[in-house]
Specification:
The chain is an all-alpha fold and 197 residues long. The protein has nine helices and no strands. The longest helix is centred in the N-terminal third of the chain and has 20 residues, at 6-25.
Length: 197
């Protein structure tokens, strides 16, 4: 019997997660969906990189739906677990980073993912990819800021390298091969930067 592809495993787990929450919260299946699955797919397929500012703004609007307390039968975002809130934080941060709003992106990641104990972001039906992806995103944000005034380029690159190394050394997680390609590319880019100095 053939093994399921990692993305198939991811989708099957998400459906199990939503189904379990629908039963626990006694709501229709659709109301148990947390963060927009469309926005998650955009993230995993590097779609934010290909978007213009108007499309990125549309994504930010789509993400607002996730924590809107008035949608459907779901009366509060407070029911969501830390991992779902971390998904929203990572997706918002990536969108903001692509809009060059680096400080906002970093603040969201620090407050909503990096400050959360890792034990709350893994196990069971939780989405365990947010913690390493947040670290990767912190690194990318530092890299993109390297030409900004206020900090030497080398300092930004060192900060970037530190975050990317943390992401690279992370324990196994769902879709780590997909995210691992991004991390490996970042490591190669940093290596070329140092070789060129």
């Amino acid at each position: 019997m053939a093994r399921q592809l990692p993305f198939d495993v991811f989708v099957a787990r998400k459906i199990q997660k939503w189904d379990a929450r629908a039963k626990e919260w006694d709501v229709p299946f659709i109301d148990a969906v947390g963060v927009s699955p469309l926005e998650e797919m955009i993230f995993f397929w590097n779609g934010y990189r290909r978007m213009d500012d108007a499309q990125l703004q549309t994504s930010l609007e789509n993400l607002k739906w996730s924590d809107d307390p008035t949608r459907g039968n779901k009366t509060t975002w407070a029911k969501e677990e830390a991992d779902e809130k971390a998904i929203l934080a990572v997706l918002r941060a990536v969108t903001l980073r692509n809009l060059q709003r680096f400080d906002e992106a970093a603040t969201i990641l620090k407050e909503n993912v990096l400050a959360v104990p890792n034990s709350e972001l893994k196990g069971g039906l939780r989405d365990d990819w947010t913690a390493p992806c947040a670290r990767y995103e912190m690194g990318v944000g530092a890299w993109m800021r390297r030409k900004q005034v206020g900090k030497e380029e080398v300092e930004w690159v060192k900060e970037c390298e530190g975050w990317i190394e943390k992401a690279a050394k992370w324990e196994g997680y769902e879709l780590d091969a997909r995210v691992g390609l991004k991390i490996a590319t970042a490591q190669d880019t940093i290596k070329k930067f140092w070789e060129g100095r």
